[in-house]
Amino acid sequence: MDGVTPAVENLKQEWVQSISQLQGTIQAIENCGKSVNATKEVNALSRLNEAGQDRLASLRSMQFSLDLLAQQLPTMEEVQLGQALMETWKEQYQRLHMGLRNANLCAKENMKKAAQEERELLLGGGEESTVRRRHLQIKAGMTSGAESITESFRRTHHMMAQEVERSASTLATFDESASILRKVESEYEGHGSMLARTHGLLSTMKYENVTDRMTLVFGFLIFLLAVLYVVSKRIGVLSFRGIL
Question: What range(s) does the Sec20 C-terminal domain occupy (predicted)?
Fold first, then answer.
């Protein structure tokens, strides 16, 4: 619970930064369509809209986080303040969402007006129209060259990314193989130690077996000697009685 309040404060700072960034994106979208280069404007508008949608998704995620954290604040007063802040954030989100939609409508209207003005200028006569057409042809050629270079750089970057990914995969495979070899080596050492202990046990058992046999033989000899002694005594007594 002690870390909830600092987490809410950090979330507030992130919210303010994201709001500022989204407002800048909306302003940039509103200004789209005022250039004569329609292709460039369309590409810029697409990128700006992607950035705007990403920031809206980030704001939704922050609202969800605040909703969870507000319920864990240590005092009831802080919980109520957190819930009030949540409502404020919802209103700001709705305004920004609507602002992004209106900015796109404004950009489309700007692009429509720019295209109409360009069409009228190109269809008109005079030196200004000729200069304008040349200027557009030169700019279109430069734009096409720049787009070609950009595409070349993009392909190169993609190839380099693939090579880096393959290299990373190869390194991961090497690391995995090295780990397997270390594991096998460890198991081999364990088996070697076990074999050494087994060999020692076998040697001990062989020694004990020989010792047991010698003990049995020695005991058997003593038993025979005892039997012979008893038999000789008995025979001697009987012979002595027979003589008497």
Answer: 145-235
CA distance 129 to 118: 10
Taking CA atoms, 25 is separated from 17, 30, 40, 123, 220, in Å, by 12, 9, 17, 35, 107
Closest CA to 15 of 93, 95, 70: 93
**Token representation of residue 42:** 């369309």
3-class secondary structure, 45: helix
User: In the numeric block, which tokens belong to residue 61?
Assistant: 């995620």
- What is the spatial distance between Cα 37 and Cα 202, in angstroms, rounded to a whole number? 91
Query: CA dihedral in degrees (227, 233, 239, 242; nearest 10)?
Result: -110
Digit-coded pLDDT (tens) for 41-94: 677 888 888 888 999 999 999 999 888 888 888 888 988 998 899 999 999 999
Entry field: residues in the chain: 244
Asked if residues 4 and 73 have their Cβ atoms less than 8 Å apart, the reply is yes
Q: Determine contact, residues 22/55, Cβ cutoff 8 Å.
A: yes
The first and second tokens of residue 86, run together, are 């949540």
Q: Please tell me the pTM assigned to this model.
A: 0.49
Radius of gyration of the CA atoms of the chain, in A: 48
- Look up tokens 């940039």; give the residue: 28
How open is the CA angle 42-47-51, to the nearest 5 degrees? 145
Angle at 73 between CA 72 and CA 74, to 5 degrees: 115
